Amino acid sequence: MATASCTWESPDSEGPLPAQFFAARRGNVQPITRLMVAVLREAIGSFQRLLFDQSARGRRLFGEVEAWLMVEDADAPLRFEDVCDLLGLDPSYVRQRLREWRARQTARAQTARTRARRLRQPATRAGAPASTTGTQRNDARRSCTPL
C-alpha cells in the first residue's frame, strides 16, 4: 500500500494545516469528500433545526454551529471555508443563502405570532371599546328602552 509522502509546513509544528492535509490526500478523494458533505449537511441541518429551539442546550448548539458557519476562524482545526473549498463551494454564497433563509424563517415566525395574538384578542363591534366585557354589554342593552 502506497502512502503519500509530504512535508508539513505548519507554523506551529503541531500538525498539518487543513489545506495541507487535503492537498496530500488528493489521491483518495471520495471518502474525504463524503465526510465533508456529511459535516456540512449536519451543520446546515442543525442550523435550520435549532434556529428557534428555546432549550438551553438547543441555544448553545445553535450558537456553536452558527459560529462555525458564519465566522471566519483561522484557528479552527476544520474550518467551514476548508470544507467549502474541498467541495467546490463558495463559502460567501453559502453564508448569504443561510442568512436569507434565516431572515425568511424569522419573518414567518413573526407573522405567525402576530396572527396568533390577533386571534386571541376578543372580537369587538364597531364603535364599542375593546375593554367592554360581556356583562357590561348586557347591562347596557337592558338599560336601553325600546322605541
Any chance you could write out the topology, listing elements then pairs?
Elements: H1 18-24, H2 29-49, H3 56-70, H4 80-87, H5 91-120, H6 134-143
Helix pairs in contact: 2-3, 2-4
Number of structural domains: 1
The span between the termini is 105 Å
How many extended strands?
A: 0
Individual helix count: 6
The dominant shape is elongated
Question: What is the subunit arrangement here?
Answer: single chain
Mean pLDDT: 78
Give the topology string: H per helix, E per strand: HHHHHH
Low-confidence stretches: 1-13
Helix content range of the residues, please?
Answer: 55-70%
In terms of DSSP E residues, the strand content is under 5%
Rg, rounded, reads 29 Å
Largest sheet: none
The structure class reads mainly alpha
Distinctive features:
147 residues, mainly alpha, 6 helices, 62% helix
Explain the overall architecture:
With 147 residues, the protein is mainly α. The chain has one domain (18-121). It contains six helices and no strands. The radius of gyration is 29 Å and the shape is elongated.
